[in-house]
């Protein structure tokens, strides 16, 4: 059985200097709830001026021309959303869905810039225990979706268990949990060398990250 991690990192990207971000820097605040209104303000600012936030370039790898393309798409998606996103999770899903064909590092960097949840925190899984099971079923294992390719034959199956369930997270070694959180932060800071080293450490411990 394969091991997989899914953490509620919930960390926010705090600007390193005053004025680092058009939206967050001047306020000195990086809470995710503020990130939603900051994204909305930046989209309005882009609609008026066609300019993207100055500090964004420190969090993503693509050019300003590409960034302008993102904001053009996000602005259109935001206007079409009925109602528009109100929570960090809703805003993050809109960003991920709208920019799903773009580089992963750019999407994660944009989310981190606004302090919005990163992809691993957005996978919805039911972990509740049903009051009754169908006849003949003796046990239910709440998991992440199983890839059909992971079923090699009738005797082998790889199951990815959600570690947001306290019953499962209790079995994950502390050093693996720490490495996972540190890797997410390293990627948000574009320190890919450190992120790769931490990923290797996680894999060597027998675990995988599922996005």
UniProtKB/TrEMBL annotation:
Would you say which domain of life the source belongs to?
Eukaryota
Could you identify this protein by its name?
Staphylococcal-like nuclease CAN2
Q: What PANTHER family does its record include?
A: EBNA2 BINDING PROTEIN P100, SERINE_THREONINE-PROTEIN KINASE 31
Record GO cellular component, one term: cytoplasm
């Amino acid at each position: 059985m394969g091991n997989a991690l899914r953490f509620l990192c919930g960390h926010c990207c705090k600007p390193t200097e005053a004025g680092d971000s058009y939206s967050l820097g001047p306020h000195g605040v990086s809470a995710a709830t503020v990130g939603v209104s900051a994204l909305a303000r930046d989209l309005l600012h882009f609609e008026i001026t066609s300019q993207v936030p100055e500090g964004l370039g420190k969090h993503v790898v693509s050019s300003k021309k590409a960034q302008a393309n993102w904001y053009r798409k996000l602005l259109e998606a935001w206007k079409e959303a009925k109602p528009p996103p109100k929570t960090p999770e809703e805003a993050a899903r809109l960003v991920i869905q709208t920019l799903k064909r773009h580089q992963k590092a750019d999407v994660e960097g944009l989310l981190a810039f606004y302090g919005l949840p990163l992809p691993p925190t957005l996978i919805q899984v039911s972990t509740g225990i049903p009051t009754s099971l169908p006849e003949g079923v003796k046990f239910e294992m709440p998991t992440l979706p199983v890839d059909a390719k992971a079923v090699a034959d009738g005797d082998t199956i790889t199951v990815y268990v959600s570690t947001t369930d306290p019953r499962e997270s209790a079995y994950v070694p502390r050093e693996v949990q720490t490495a996972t959180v540190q890797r997410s932060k390293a990627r948000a800071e574009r320190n890919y060398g450190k992120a790769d080293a931490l990923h290797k450490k996680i894999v060597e411990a027998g675990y995988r990250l599922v996005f």
